[in-house]
Amino acid sequence: MAVEETATAAGKSAGETRATGRASTKPAHSPLRNLIALMLAIAPPLAFAQIVPGGAHAPNVITTQNGVPQVNITQPSSGSRVSVNTYGQFDISKSGAILNNSPTIVNAQLAGYINGNPNFGPNDAAQQSIKPHASDPAATS
User: Which stretches does UniProt call biased (Polar residues) (predicted)?
Assistant: First the structure.
């Protein structure tokens, strides 16, 4: 039998009792939920800074073990060795970012040892072209 959600029960049948009324639908608010909402509201926008690859020449962006973004730039052209890289967003937080221009394992100041850039052959790029294409300007903190 289909029953409307707002229906209430009344009366009783033999040997059975039923309560009348509705359950409360008011959400429970905890102090932790309120604290998280407050922190998100007052957090500076740059706390959410990120590097978002995009476009035809999008590089690979990974995160190192200590949380620093590592950009494996695109393969450089064979003649001029220029690596062209396009981004939807290019914002760098206080922790910095690594633009990986090494074909082999290297010790980076921000992250320690990192793997070589898989986009490269035996040579690195002589120049990098970084082209952010976004409606908001790039930001650093």
Answer: 119-130
Distance between CA atoms of residues 108 and 110, nearest Å: 6
The single residue listed with the structure tokens 């200590």 is: 66
Query: Pairing mode, if any, of strands 82-90 and 98-100?
Result: unpaired
How many whole angstroms separate alpha carbon 141 and alpha carbon 119?
Answer: 29
**What pLDDT does 33 receive?**
74
Q: Against a cut of 0.85, is the pTM above it?
A: no
Distance CA 21, CA 37 (A): 33
pLDDT 10s digits, 39-90: 666 554 444 568 899 888 999 999 999 899 999 999 888 888 899 999 998 8
The angle subtended at Cα 126 by Cα 112 and Cα 103, nearest 5°, is 40
CB-CB contact of 91 with 135 (8 Å)? no
Is 117 within 8 Å of 103 (Cβ atoms)?
yes
* Distance between CA atoms of residues 41 and 39, nearest Å: 5
Could you give the residue ranges of the DSSP H alpha helices within the chain?
Answer: 31-42
